[in-house]
Write a structure and sequence with these properties.
Blueprint (H helix, E strand, L loop, with lengths): L1 H19 L4 H8 L1 H7 L5 H18 L10 H13 L16 H27 L7 H24 L8 H5 L2 H4 L2 H7 L4 E5 L4 E5 L6 H21 L3 H20 L3 H20 L4 H19 L2 H10 L4 H17 L9 E2 L22 E2 L4 H27 L6 H16 L8 H19 L5
Antiparallel strand pairs: 1-2, 3-4
Helix pairs in contact: 4-6, 5-17, 6-19, 7-11, 7-12, 7-19, 11-12, 11-13, 11-18, 11-19, 13-14, 13-18, 14-15, 16-17, 17-18, 18-19
C-alpha cells in the first residue's frame, strides 16, 4: 500500500516543480538576438512582444504556489504608472504656444509609451524573480556586456557606412500610408546613422542599432560598465585583452558621434566608480583613472579626434533649441503641475517666430517637441509632479537601498543608474535605455536577495 500511495503523490509534485520554473529565454532572447530583431524591423517592438510570454509565465508560477516578488521601492514605480494613466485625461488640452490637435490624434503615441512602460515593468519583475539556476547574474552581465560590444559595432558601421539602410521585413508588410509616417519609420526601418550638420557639412552620427544618435550615446554609457565587469570576471587573459581593445576602439565612434551628452555621461560614470572604489579602500583606482586619462589625452593630441571634439564644443547649434524647449517644458509644468498634459506637444513655429515651422527643406526650423529633449522635461511636462516623483523616487530609492553593494556587479549596476540621472537632462529614456536601467535595478535587487550586497 505504501508503494501505491507514493505513485500519485510523486506525479503532481514533479509537475508542480516544473510549472514553477521561469525560463531564461525571454530575457536572453531579447539581448542575445537584438541584431536579428533590429534587422527584421522589430527593434524596440520586441519588448512588448516578449512581455506577453513573460507575464504568462509569472502568472503561471504564482498560480503554482511560488511567491511572486516585487522589487523594493515598487510603490514609487506604481505611482509613476498611475500618473501616466491619469494624465491621459489632459490629452485634449492645448497649452499656450503649441499646435492645437484633437486628443484622439495624440492617443496613439501615448498608448505606445504606456505599453512600453508596462512591458519594461514586466521585464523588471521577471528578471528579478529569476534564480541563479535559471539565469545567473553573471550571465545577465555578460549579455549586457555583449550589448555594449554591439553598440560599438553599430557605431563603427555608422562611421564607415553612414548611408547604410534597408527595408525590413516588418516594414514591407505595413501599408504604404502607415510605413511612410516618420514615427513608424523610426521603429521599423533599420539604418546605420543620422546625417546631421553640426560642425560644418553633413556628417553621419552613429545610431545603429538603437535608432537615434542620442539613444546610441545613452546606451553606450549605460552598458560600458557591464562589459568591463564581464571581462574581468573571466579567467581568460585573452578576453580581458579584447575588452580593453574594445574600450580603446569605442573612443572612435564615441567622438565621431559629436555627442556631448555621451562625453559628460562617461565622465560621470568614471567619477562615480572611482569614488565608490576609493571609499572601499581600493586606492589603486586613482592610478588607473590617471593612466586612462593620460592615454585618452594622448590619443586626442596625436589623432584627429581632438580636432573633432574641439569643433563640436565650438559649435553648439542645439543649445538654443534646447534652452527654448526647457523653457516651454517649465512653463507647461507651472500651468499644469500635478498631472501634466498626458504627452508631449509640438511648438507653434520655432524659437524665433511662430511663423517658422518644420518643412521638407528645413526639418529642424520649428514645430519642436516639448518634452522630447530629456526624460526629466518629458516627465514634468507630460505627467506632472506626481509622475516625476514616482519615476525619480523609484530609481533614487534603489540607489539608496542598495548603496552597500560593493561587488563589481553592484557598482556597475548602480553606476548605470547614476549615469542615467545625468543623461535625463538631455536624453529620453524610452525604450532601450530604460530597459537597461530596469535590468540594472534587477541585478542590484538580486544581489541583495542572494546576500552579496556587501562583498
Amino acid at each position: 500500500m505504501t508503494t501505491v500511495a507514493a505513485v500519485p503523490f510523486a506525479g503532481p509534485a514533479h509537475r508542480s516543480v516544473k510549472n514553477r520554473s521561469l525560463p531564461a529565454w525571454p530575457v536572453a532572447g531579447i539581448l542575445l538576438l537584438y541584431p536579428l530583431w533590429w534587422a527584421l524591423g522589430l527593434g524596440v517592438l520586441i519588448f512588448p512582444l516578449m512581455a506577453a510570454p513573460m507575464l504568462f509565465m509569472l502568472v503561471r508560477r504564482r498560480a503554482a504556489g511560488r511567491p511572486l516578488r516585487l522589487p523594493p521601492g515598487f510603490a514609487w514605480w506604481a505611482i509613476f504608472l498611475i500618473a501616466v494613466v491619469v494624465s491621459v485625461a489632459a490629452l485634449g488640452a492645448d497649452p499656450a504656444g503649441t499646435v492645437a490637435e484633437r486628443a484622439s490624434a495624440r492617443l496613439p503615441a501615448v498608448a505606445y509609451k504606456l505599453s512600453m512602460y508596462l512591458s519594461l515593468t514586466v521585464l523588471l519583475i521577471y528578471a528579478g524573480n529569476l534564480t541563479e539556476a535559471e539565469l545567473s547574474r553573471h550571465r545577465l552581465v555578460r549579455l549586457l556586456g555583449g550589448m555594449f560590444v554591439l553598440t560599438v559595432a553599430g557605431g563603427l558601421l555608422g562611421m564607415v557606412a553612414g548611408n547604410f539602410e534597408f527595408t525590413s521585413p516588418v516594414e514591407w508588410l505595413l501599408p504604404t500610408g502607415v510605413r511612410s509616417k516618420g514615427f513608424v519609420r523610426s521603429l521599423v526601418h533599420p539604418y546605420a546613422a543620422q546625417i546631421m550638420d553640426l560642425v560644418g557639412g553633413e556628417k553621419p552620427r552613429p545610431a545603429a542599432p538603437w535608432g537615434y544618435t542620442n539613444t546610441w550615446g545613452n546606451n553606450f554609457c549605460l552598458l560600458a560598465g557591464f562589459m568591463l565587469v564581464a571581462a574581468w570576471a573571466s579567467r581568460s587573459a585573452g578576453k580581458k585583452a579584447l575588452a580593453l581593445l574594445c574600450v580603446a576602439i569605442s573612443i572612435i565612434p564615441a567622438v565621431a558621434s559629436l555627442n556631448r551628452g555621451l562625453w559628460i555621461g562617461i565622465g560621470v560614470l568614471v567619477a562615480y566608480v572611482a569614488i565608490r572604489y576609493v571609499l572601499a579602500g581600493r586606492l589603486w583606482i586613482i592610478a588607473a583613472v590617471l593612466v586612462a586619462g593620460g592615454a585618452l589625452w594622448a590619443a586626442m593630441v596625436a589623432t584627429p579626434l581632438g580636432t573633432t571634439v574641439q569643433a563640436r564644443l565650438d559649435n553648439g547649434k542645439s543649445n538654443g533649441v534646447r534652452s527654448f524647449l526647457i523653457e516651454k517644458a517649465v512653463e507647461g509644468f507651472v500651468a499644469s503641475p500635478v498631472i501634466g498634459y498626458g504627452g508631449t506637444r509640438n511648438t507653434l513655429g520655432g524659437r524665433n517666430s511662430i511663423t517658422v515651422g518644420e518643412s521638407a527643406g528645413c526639418e529642424r526650423c520649428g514645430n519642436f517637441t516639448v518634452g522630447g529633449n530629456g526624460q526629466i522635461w518629458q516627465l514634468l511636462y507630460s505627467h506632472g509632479a506626481v509622475g516625476t516623483v514616482g519615476y525619480l523616487g523609484f530609481f533614487g530609492y534603489g540607489l539608496w537601498r542598495f548603496r552597500r553593494d560593493r561587488s563589481p556587479i553592484g557598482v556597475a549596476a548602480s553606476g548605470a543608474i547614476v549615469t542615467s540621472f545625468s543623461a535625463m537632462l538631455w536624453y529620453n529614456s524610452l525604450v532601450t535605455p530604460l530597459a537597461f536601467m530596469v535590468l540594472a535595478y534587477a541585478l542590484l535587487w538580486r544581489d541583495w536577495i542572494e546576500g552579496n550586497d556587501r562583498t
